[in-house]
Input
Amino acid sequence: MDGEQNKNFQPKPLTKISKETGNPYFRRDETVSEIIKTINYSKAGLLEKLEDLKSETLVFLFREKYQADYEIAGKIWEILAGRIWKLAGNQKIKFNNAADFEDFVMDIQVRFFQGIGNLESDAFDYAQASFGEFIKGFILNKSREKKNVREREKQTIWLDEETENDEARTPFQLIAKMTNSEKELIFRQALHKLPGEILEVCILYYLDGWQIHSKDPDKITIAKLYGKSEKTIRNWIFKAGEILVEYRGELR
Amino acid sequence: MNTQELQDIFEAYSLETPDGNDFDILRKYMEKYPGYKRDLAEFAKERALLKFDLQTEISSDEKNRLAKISRSKFEEFWANRDQEITRIESLTKLAKTFGMKKIEFARKIGLNGTQLFNLEVRRFVFTTIPQSLISTIAETLQTTKDAVAQFLDQSPGVAANYKSETRPDEIEQISFSQAVQEDETLSAEEKERLLNLK
Output
């Protein structure tokens, strides 16, 4: 039965228009293909496969087809709620306590489902274009409204040290010479060996091309983003580099 | 502070940089929206972490506990869903949003123009409308059966986008099968097909 019906089905195009470009939002090709494939599943078949579907597909199914189906809507809710928890995880340090953070994420979840379930509004269309980016933006946006969100902690994880000519030091050189895949692999393996913020800084620096510091006051840099001195960030990266390089040695 | 505006700015930046952060474009946005400079920087950071899939791992116990809380939120949502289901104002207006003209919409759901009009003005006694027709309408309009049923199960009314001299209180409700049998524009085969709908 799967794949036999609705051969010509195409999901309704997204209708939200970007105010910047005037262009309508659109789903990625792989999302459209997955929706078309999924639309013909039997209910039992669909329930079995929901966990494996892309979040963007699940948003479509919830919004356009199954929000009145208790079993499927409930399962989609459960899966997307779990994915929202994971995406929100690194925001936990901004909250005064775990309970405040949980309330915040629950509020995000409910607002999200209300938003995608509102067929009269296309405000949440981007969730079908890029769910992760939509949720990240939504979380940042909503965290501005919350009084229980505190400014980034001013804790110093590793003390500043006098360092000179960092780039000439071994860990910097070794990591800089790695391919991006090798860097990614090592960061992923070392996920739990580095404090969260340090790992973030390493990823921004080594993988996403952010500058540590710039004399240009308008340029966004890691030091500005984390409210730390250039020296501190260099020190974090250097110390993390030592661990990562050592870890690479262990892996070999 | 406009939260929708900020969300739109994040989305516009993402759409313009589909392969990941571009610091020149990021700077352009920061210059255009200086009040959101910090937010844009945070968003760019989150995108980078997302790209490398740096998501917090949750232990299975914690996962189960959070799943239970989320489930209770869903149950609350479900209990209030009657308020959440969006009302359909007009079937043909909704079809228009998919680029379907009335005649094309009628063809897709297997009716002629007359019977589509009857549906639109809720001339049919709701309980006589075949469930398979309601399903076909819901599927064609990519909405739920409940939403379609909620629209059809109302008092008769003049459709907003039909020109009609008939006042709603003058529309006499009839059964779906009676309307089909009395429709002289339908062929015998078409009548038989419609009357056999379950």
Notes: Residues 89 and 189 of chain A are 18 Å apart (CA to CA). Chain A touches chain B through 71 residues (CB under 8 Å). The radius of gyration of chain A is 22 Å. Residues 151-164 of chain A have pLDDT under 50 and may be disordered.
